[in-house]
């Protein structure tokens, strides 16, 4: 199976470093606490749209095969869980009926 673009360890480290730099407070450690923070620059709607598109390109979608396998696994687990809870419900119901029969016959 072909490797997805940008999935090499170096590319991931570079993206992590860029994210960390972007999330760090402006001038962290470089400015004193008494210095006022510069007001944030507002972005235009066009710039916002460009940034959204850039982030959307980074999304790695699952393949059709992966989606199908995951869906089948979920269906199997739902069936198994329903069988388990049906058995437990039947067992508890049977036990309660036996207790009630014992209580009313005595």
TrEMBL record:
The keyword Membrane applies. Keywords: Cell membrane, Membrane, Protein transport, Translocation, Transmembrane, Transmembrane helix, Transport. Component of the Sec protein translocase complex. Heterotrimer consisting of SecY, SecE and SecG subunits. The heterotrimers can form oligomers, although 1 heterotrimer is thought to be able to translocate proteins. Interacts with the ribosome. Interacts with SecDF, and other proteins may be involved. Interacts with SecA. The chain crosses the membrane at residues 68-96. It is a single-pass membrane protein. This is Protein translocase subunit SecE. The gene is secE. InterPro entries: SecE_bac, SecE_sf, Translocase_SecE/Sec61-g. Belongs to the SecE/SEC61-gamma family. It comes from Caulobacter segnis. Residues 10-38 have a biased composition (Low complexity). Residues 1-49 are annotated as: Disordered. Coiled coil: none annotated. It is found in: Cell membrane; Membrane. Essential subunit of the Sec protein translocation channel SecYEG. Clamps together the 2 halves of SecY. May contact the channel plug during translocation.
């Amino acid at each position: 199976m072909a490797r997805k673009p940008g999935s090499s360890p170096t590319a991931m480290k570079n993206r992590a470093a860029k994210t960390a730099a972007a999330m760090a407070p402006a001038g962290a450690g470089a400015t004193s606490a008494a210095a006022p923070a510069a007001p944030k620059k507002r972005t235009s709607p066009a710039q916002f749209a460009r940034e959204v598109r850039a982030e959307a390109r980074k999304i790695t979608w699952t393949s059709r095969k992966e989606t199908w396998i995951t869906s089948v696994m979920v269906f199997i687990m739902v069936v198994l869980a329903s069988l388990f809870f049906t058995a437990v419900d039947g067992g508890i119901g049977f036990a309660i009926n036996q207790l009630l029969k014992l209580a009313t016959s005595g």
